[in-house]
Amino acid sequence: MGLGSDLLRGIGVGDPVIRLGVTGLSRAGKTVFITSLVANLMDRGRMTALKAAADGSIKAAWLQPQPDDTVPRFEFENHLAALTGPEPYWPEGTRHISELRLSLRVQPSGLLSGWRKPQTVHIDIVDYPGEWLLDLRLMERSYDEWSAEVLSRMPGRPGAEDYLAALAAVDLDARLDEQTAQSLSASYTAHLQAAREAGWSDCTPGRFLLPGEMAGSPALTFAPLPPVEGKSPLRREFARRYEAYKSRIVKPFFRDHFARIDRQVVLVDVLGAIHAGPPALEDLRRTMADILSAFNPGRTGWLAQLLGLRRVERILFAATKADHLHHTQHPRLANIATALLREARDRADFAGARTEAMAIASLRATTEAMIEQNGQDLPAVRGTLMDGRRAAFYPGELPADPAQLLVPAREGKTEWLDGDYAAMNFRPAADTSRPGDGPPHIRLDRAAEFLIGDRL
């Protein structure tokens, strides 16, 4: 978009613009986060921890056409209607990149505020699947390296046996047959889908899970193969398609979208990984370390050349679904998220960037309650299950020391020895908001203050 297009839309030359990236792995809650954030910035009654909202500096908020004409618009109105309608339900999750521009009319505060005119701050929210960031690691790996890595970690994962059986039935020395290539690719994709459904995080290539308009293309028709002696036509073709995937799909995304992000939210379903067990939690830890390497301004190679000196200024790691826990356990969830991401944060070398971890719920679907069990009062939450039943839920007590979870996960334990951490799916609660209030949440205002408060 050029300057002329912005002027036609009534956007001033000097208006500040904040590009806020929102990502996370599947079911981390990206769509709900963006919808609730925008709704709460437009109706700010619940945003008391956002200073510019609490002191009245934000005078107005409205939506405008996003600046990128080739990027789909984030369907805010449809998603908000789903969450707050008479029969609320969770909207469909992120399947492709989308964008939304929210403009805020802000009266500057401070000693000279009376002499300064209000300014308009534009927030361009860019929503993209976290699975796409997983592909960053492919850029520095050859096909042989990627294949060896994937096959070494595959045993024990859901759907792995079916793929390995399909692979064993293929003659890798035979002449190239497209039906064989498609069959292997489909079997490998089915394995990735099964692993993701079971709570695993590291599922590459990411576009195999969210192919969009690329479904069925040769660039998405390959799979990991073991090394073979001599020349294998299938392996040679898969290696070629792997390189095409990197150059035609992965690299343009980082060049066109990721390189322009100013602030970033990384949503993490820590509770889901804990519920899935130690292997899934360890997988999440390794995956987040790989994802966050994308935010390292000092890394070498193609990404550094692409980003130049540009840095993401602030990065928020948000452990979502805090409303599935009583508030007394929220500090423990935040501590686990901080510990889980510590290696990722250290590896990324965030020199000059501020980072923070917190436990949030973008849309609060429960209320708190105390329930009696075996003569003991337990802090629980109460909500409506997906089948319509009302239920009170105690998921188990998270440990005060995150090492009680992270150490067994690193050691390769297959189940928790000291606790069973349950999970339950709630539907959105009926909307009871008063005029001027956005949807109910937990710490979304704190998240907004960290991400954009300094620019308001």
Report a brief summary of the structure:
The chain is an alpha/beta fold and 456 residues long.
Number of domains: 2
Radius of gyration: 23 Å
Oligomer: single chain
Structural class: alpha/beta
Shape, principal axes of CA atoms: globular
CATH structural fold name of the largest domain: Rossmann fold
Distance between the termini: 25 Å
Helix content: 25-40%
- Secondary-structure arrangement, i.e. CATH architecture of the largest domain: 3-Layer(aba) Sandwich
Specify the CATH class of the largest domain: Alpha Beta
Main sheet: strand order: 2-3-4-1-5-6-7
3D structure, described in words:
With 456 residues, the protein is an alpha/beta fold. The chain has two domains: 15-128 and 257-365 and 429-455, 3-Layer(aba) Sandwich (Rossmann fold), CATH 3.40.50.300; 140-254, no CATH class. Helices cover 36% and strands 16% of the residues. The protein has 16 helices and ten strands. It has helices at residues 3-8, 30-42, 51-54, 76-84, 130-134, 143-153, 160-168, 178-197, 233-256, 270-276, 278-292, 302-307, 330-340, 342-348, 403-410, 444-452, and strands spanning 17-24, 58-64, 98-106, 119-127, 263-268, 314-319, 354-359, 367-373, 376-384, 390-393. Strands 2-3-4-1-5-6-7 form a seven-stranded mixed sheet. Strand 9 (376-384) and strand 10 form a beta hairpin. Helix 2 crosses helix 4 and helix 11 runs parallel beside helix 14 (342-348). The protein is globular and about 75 Å long. The model is unreliable at 1-9 (pLDDT under 50).
